[in-house]
Amino acid sequence: MFKEIFENLRQVRPLVHCITNYVTVVDVANAVLACGASPIMADDSGEVEEITSICTSLVINIGTLSKRTVPSMLLAGKQANALSHPVVLDPVGVGASAFRTQTAFDLLNNVRFSVIRGNSSEIKTLLRQDASTQGVDADIKDSIHEDNIDQYVALAQEVSKRYHAIVAITGAIDIVADDNQAYIIRNGHPLMSKITGSGCMLSGILGGFIGANPANILTAVAAGVATMGLSGEIAHEKMLQFDGGTSTYRTFLIDAISNMNETILKRGVRIELR
Questions:
Q1: HSE of 179 in the Cβ direction (CA atoms, 13 Å)?
Q2: What is the CATH number of the domain that holds 58?
Q3: What is the pLDDT of residues 41-73, one digit of tens each?
């Protein structure tokens, strides 16, 4: 099911404009390159509209907000909309502060997003502003497991319907949904949560996947999420061979992303369509 997605990615080599956070910007750029796209990082209001105009897609990540970058996000988002470029929102830590929450909703009210990717607590907050969060991590009570997966599929579809976007809830089990159907993806490794930026990297990767596949965004997002999850598993296996730790794991994770293709993904993906 992913053959065409990867073929388009290799053919188009989309240019992805990432307005992301300074904690993870290098890893995001490397992940975008690894998946077969090209990144450009620009966050000054004096150039974001021009940069967005020459790119294929836009990724907005609110991980390290400032009063300087919020106007840039809005300008870039509106320009991407005007050009019909797909846009990803990563609402990192929404709910952790009033400024962060207000910014997320300002973006949602002024920019049409193709994809919203976040953890379970972040996605809950986009539906109910009083939902709890643990900084940039999901609240433990919001963990997705087999007993509550239907609840989170319904949540993803409700958020998708409200914002007219594909919603990806990522965690121990990943959900990628529009308002009618959902992919359940059971790939990944717990060590992914022990390195800074795995979620940010995924959002950048999604910018590449949807930039190359704007007519098939649901499947492209599922392919991107599955790529990241399976890469996490492959990286862990490789790390054990070298008696490595989290820094080694990050390197092998990016290696696995760069080596991923439809054949490897088909062999290792654990995915269900509901």
A1: 9
A2: 3.40.1190.20
A3: 999 999 999 999 999 999 999 999 999 999 999
